[in-house]
Amino acid sequence: MNNMKKAGIIGVGGYVPERVVDNFEMEKIVDTTDEWITSRTGIRQRRIASDSQATSDLAVEAAREALDSAGIKAEELDLIIVATLTPDSNMPSTACIVQDKIGATRAAAFDLGAACSGFVYGLVTGAQFIQTGAYKKILVIGAETMSRVLDWKDRSTCVLFGDGAGAAVIAEVGEDEGIASFELGSDGSGAEFLIIPAGGSRMPATCEVVQERLNCLKMSGPEVFKFAVRVMADSAKRVVESAGLQMSDIDVMIPHQANTRIIESSSKRLAISEEKMFVNLDKYGNMSGASIPFALYEAHRSGKIKKGDNVLMVGFGAGLTWGAAVLKWSI
Ligand code: UT7
Q1: How far is the CA of 42 from the centre of ligand 1 (A)?
Q2: Is-catalytic flag, 216?
């Protein structure tokens, strides 16, 4: 007999900064065009944090809404996980800053580093504590200020990303609800394809490395593209099968919002209709760790995801990493 409890999402929240930067504004910053960005990526605009906003500020807004949506108080939280590649600082964790700002006096807190797959990694990690009964209420946040790690002179990356945060409260749910299956994966042989080279122990930030912009994100776009197309479809198929479902049973798919061409290709490979794919990257760009939770939040808020729906989420990103999960939506 399996005595494990079922873990699911009982509340969601989201936040994006007010400032909208559209592709025409990007044309004034780097040698690019709205036509190139739209046709190669599907992105039309992105949000950029104000000078006074750090990642924890975005995370706190999303967290408060998720707590309201779950109908619980911050004091009830046992654990806060913040998935981010743009922490407020390397130390302490951004999760601890959030813990203090929301008044989650009983909660443990840590950051999780799995880049764009971070929210799925965080959800699955948090779920283990719920399933064993060790913890009852966990807040998982994906939050990023990507604008702070972009090279604003590199047109091949700076047009792609945006800032934002999404959050989910996870707790025990009914036997037929919650996480039905998951897959987490990594392939560190592709570490160089998506990397912020400087600022860590390999290459500490010095004046020289900053002048060379090695403290900014570097990406081999076509390599990541090939990986993404393969891993999105393959891991989606495996998690749907291990949930005991067919692809036709999936009501909504939340893919990582990186590029509409990747999403369209996955939709074809999985034979899942494009109407079932939730896409909001035209408005926000790639928000990395915030991409999936913010999309979940918008999909829930707009009524696209309803109670009882089978939801499939698939993330991929730096590491290289990927994470996929199937959930029966319980709110
Ligand atoms: O969440 C993290 C995961 N990241 C991703 O999923 C990103 C995956 N990769 C991609 O989405 C695509 O590879 C990109 C959108 C990044 C690039 O699209 P691509 O079709 O692979 O273009 P490319 O890198 O092969 O570049 C094609 C051309 C190049 O010019 P030449 O060498 O053909 O003359 C680039 O210099 O497009 C040029 N280019 C641009 N032109 C105008 C690159 N960026 C731009 C730009 N505006 N912003």
Answers
A1: 12
A2: no
310 in catalytic set: no
Q: Which of 23, 215, 259, 286 is catalytic?
A: 286
Distance CA 50, CA 135 (A): 36
Nearest CA to ligand 1 atom 6: 258
Rounded average pLDDT over 176-202: 97
Which pLDDT does position 3 carry in this prediction? Answer: 82
Tell me, yes or no, if 116 is annotated catalytic. yes
Domains and CATH numbers, the chain: 7-176 (3.40.47.10), 179-328 (3.40.47.10)
Mean pLDDT for the chain overall: 97
What's the predicted TM-score (pTM) here? 0.97
Pairing of strands 45-48, 79-83: unpaired
Strands 108-112 and 79-83: parallel
Decide whether any atom of ligand 1 lies within 6 Å of the 43 Cβ.
no
pLDDT for the residue 152? 98
Closest CA to 41 of 33, 52, 51, 30: 33
